[in-house]
Design brief:
six-stranded mixed β-sheet, alpha+beta, three-stranded antiparallel β-sheet, single chain, Deoxyribonuclease I, Chain A, 23% helix, 12 strands
Length: 252
């Protein structure tokens, strides 16, 4: 949402979210401030009556849904100096476990990735339908950084690419699974002036699904209009699952 959401853009940004008619919304970079209160009010007025966020003035994550879930802020029990607001867990009545994430930059996300890897192993072993979705601020060096694509020598890299690759061995990355061999980027530096072509895109907005949830994965698509309409600097990610009870679709 770009640092909690610009007040002038909040209404338009949320209306674009509502256009996808999703059961649940994961909003990274949510802040517990005046803008955050406005976001919560609009969500409530539009049927997203179940909401949870870690009480924190800095960037975190908000989970809002039309149906009830049991929220667990800071599910991994991280200390206050370890960005505990970066992950929020929601357990839905149909058995879906959702991890909404906004992971901090550089090596600061290593504890979170290690915890997500442990959660992935547990969910796989227990047969839990689980999804991790949001801004991971990490990815594959060769394909998720535009400046590196097609080059023999990498121009940039994710400092946590090793842990990202380990997570990818346990859970399936939804967009890549549905678009094998494709290249897209979900984040570009935010500019108010007219957009010009630059090789500075990054694909950092991801969704991972557990082994038992993978058969229910129908689609995973980016909505780049969030960026191109200058509502935020990230594209939205819409994941659609086949239902157990009711329809599940979750964007970040």
């Amino acid at each position: 949402m770009r640092s909690g959401g610009t007040r002038a853009k909040i209404d338009a940004l949320l209306q674009r979210c509502f256009s996808h008619d999703c059961d649940a919304l994961v909003l990274p970079e949510f802040r517990d401030n005046a803008s955050g209160e406005r976001i919560r009010e609009i969500l409530l007025d539009n049927g997203y009556v179940h909401q949870a966020a870690y009480p924190h003035k800095g960037n975190g994550v908000l989970l809002a849904a039309r149906r009830a879930f049991r929220p667990t802020p800071n599910p991994f029990g991280l200390d206050e100096n370890e960005y505990p607001q970066a992950v929020l867990q929601g357990d839905f009545e149909d058995g879906l476990r959702l991890f909404g994430v906004y992971l901090p930059g550089q090596d600061r996300k290593r504890p979170h990735l290690r915890c997500l890897i442990a959660a992935a192993e547990h969910c796989n072993e227990a047969g839990i339908d689980a999804m991790c979705i949001g801004d991971l601020n990490s990815g594959r060096n060769e394909t998720d950084i535009e400046a590196n694509v097609g080059r023999a020598r990498l121009r940039d890299s994710f400092s946590t690419a090793d842990l990202y690759a380990e997570l990818e061995r346990h859970w399936t990355e939804a967009w890549l699974y549905r678009h094998p061999g494709k290249i897209e980027f979900s984040w570009y530096p935010f500019r108010l002036e007219e957009q010009t072509p630059r090789r500075n895109g990054w694909r950092i907005d991801k969704a991972f699904v557990s082994r038992s949830l993978l058969p229910r994965l129908i689609s995973a698509e980016y909505d780049h209009g969030f960026r191109t309409e200058l509502l935020t600097d990230h594209s939205g990610l819409i994941v659609t699952l086949s239902p157990r009870r009711g329809n599940d679709s979750v964007p970040a």
